[in-house]
Structure formats: structure tokens, C-alpha cells
Write a structure and sequence with these properties.
extended; alpha+beta; 258 residues; 27% strand
Length: 258
């Protein structure tokens, strides 16, 4: 009928439970959407029949999603507010970004979206026809420009992020390092390297109680740093330069305590 509009209700108790359970504040609280999210949760509850309201609220309270990684405080993002404004207003940004090697670059970008992954914010932006993700904590300067931009009609942030993370992960850990681990070291793989799959590919070593496998790292230096966490339960076999650097690092470590 003319003028009739469907109320929010039409949402089932099960659907409301799912919405309330996954809508924890988390990263949204850091971009000034935490209050809006809390109000939205109240409105969803208020739209439910009184008979099912308490039951739905109690059911949703049995689930909690914590997006922050273990042992890591939230990263400081000094210019997060500017990034949020630029993304929401489709306005260009002038950013200075510090690369992993310490060098900085300054450029004008079209900010297409923000992604929070395990407590870390990334700015997805286009510049010079190329779309990339920038770790937001490494943006040392950000200036919101008056000029706007036209957002690509076919851009899908979730799809871009899935493809970008796949390519990023594939670009890392390109150095194969063959090691042998004691039974204790093999069991410690999830704790030391956050690796829950490599142990399945281990093969028996000629020395009883030891196992061989190949792990992958970004560089010889990264391999040594991370493998030191196994202490005497690891021996680097190949490549020779990693074995030599690991031995030298171990000698210097031992000398520190002599």
C-alpha cells in the first residue's frame, strides 16, 4: 500500500543473535564508530518482540570475538582519523609512508578503504593506476586534500584484500632452510614459529629422536633470529651461509653469559 514501509522486524531471533554476537566493538572503537555500533545493537534488540528480547540478548552474550593478536598491544596509528575521513569522504590524501627498510616515500593517493587485520590497520589506496595496501602505523604524515576522486564502480574491498594477502604471503618466506629438530623442538614449532603444519612433513633423522624438515624465511638474518628460539633443540643444516651465521650468533650469545 502507498506509504507503507516494512519495519526492521522481519529479522528472526536467530539472525539477531548472529548480528549481536559478531558486532563487538574492537577496531571500530578506534575510528569513532564504536558508539554507533553500540546504538545499532540496542536498536536491533528493541526491534525484537518483548518475549524474545531477553533470550536473544542472553544467547548473543555467550559469544565474543577478540580481534587483537596475543601479546601485542594495538598499534599506534597517529593519523587514523585523517585516513578515516578521507575514505568516508572520497577525498585524496597526501601521505608519507615509511617502508620496511626505513626509507620514506611521499605521494598523493585515492583512499579506497581501511582494513583491520588482527589489530593492525591497513590503508588500501590507488596511486598511478596501481592499488596497494599500506600499513597505517607506518604513515608518518597524512594531509586530507580538497580534491575528491571517483571511486571505481567495480572495486570490491574484500575481494582485493583476499588477493593482496595471498600475493603478499607468497612473496615472503622464499628462503628454504633445512634443519633438524629434536622431538622437543618439533613439538615447539607452533609456539616458536606459529607453525602448525610443517611438523607433518618432517622425516626421521639418522640420529634417534631427531627429525629433519625444511622451513622458509624472508632472509638468513630472519632465519637465525627466529630459529634461536629453539635453543639446543635445533641444528641448521642448509644453506651454508645460514648455518654459519646461526653458529656465529650462538657463539656470541654464549659469550654474553660466560
Amino acid at each position: 500500500m502507498e506509504g507503507w514501509r516494512s519495519p526492521l522486524l522481519g529479522i528472526s531471533a536467530e539472525e539477531a543473535t548472529a548480528l549481536l554476537a559478531v558486532s563487538a566493538g574492537g577496531p571500530l572503537e578506534r575510528i569513532a564508530l564504536g558508539d554507533a555500533l553500540a546504538q545499532a545493537r540496542l536498536k536491533v534488540l528493541a526491534a525484537l518482540p518483548a518475549s524474545g528480547r531477553d533470550r536473544t540478548h542472553a544467547a548473543a552474550a555467550r559469544f565474543h570475538i577478540d580481534t587483537q593478536a596475543w601479546f601485542k598491544p594495538p598499534e599506534l596509528v597517529p593519523h587514523l582519523a585523517e585516513l578515516v575521513d578521507a575514505v568516508r569522504q572520497d577525498r585524496r590524501l597526501r601521505i608519507t609512508h615509511r617502508r620496511r627498510d626505513g626509507r620514506t616515500t611521499t605521494k598523493t593517493v585515492d583512499p579506497l578503504g581501511l582494513v583491520a587485520k588482527a589489530g593492525v590497520w591497513y590503508l588500501v589506496a590507488r596511486a598511478g593506476g596501481e592499488t596497494r595496501a599500506h600499513r597505517a602505523s607506518r604513515i608518518t604524515e597524512a594531509k586530507l586534500l580538497a580534491a575528491g576522486f571517483t571511486r571505481p564502480a567495480d572495486f570490491d574491498l574484500a575481494a582485493f584484500w583476499a588477493e593482496w594477502t595471498r600475493e603478499f604471503e607468497a612473496s615472503l618466506d622464499q628462503l628454504p632452510v633445512t634443519v633438524r629438530l629434536s622431538a622437543t623442538g618439533l613439538a615447539a614449532l607452533p609456539e616458536v614459529l606459529d607453525d602448525t603444519t610443517s611438523a607433518a612433513h618432517a622425516t626421521p633423522d639418522p640420529e634417534p629422536g631427531w627429525h629433519r624438515l625444511t622451513l622458509h624465511f624472508d632472509s638468513p638474518h630472519a632465519a637465525c633470529r627466529r630459529l634461536l628460539g629453539f635453543g639446543p633443540d635445533v641444528e641448521v643444516l642448509e644453506p651454508p651461509d645460514v648455518r654459519a651465521e646461526f653458529a656465529e650468533t650462538a657463539r656470541r650469545t654464549a659469550a654474553r653469559y660466560s
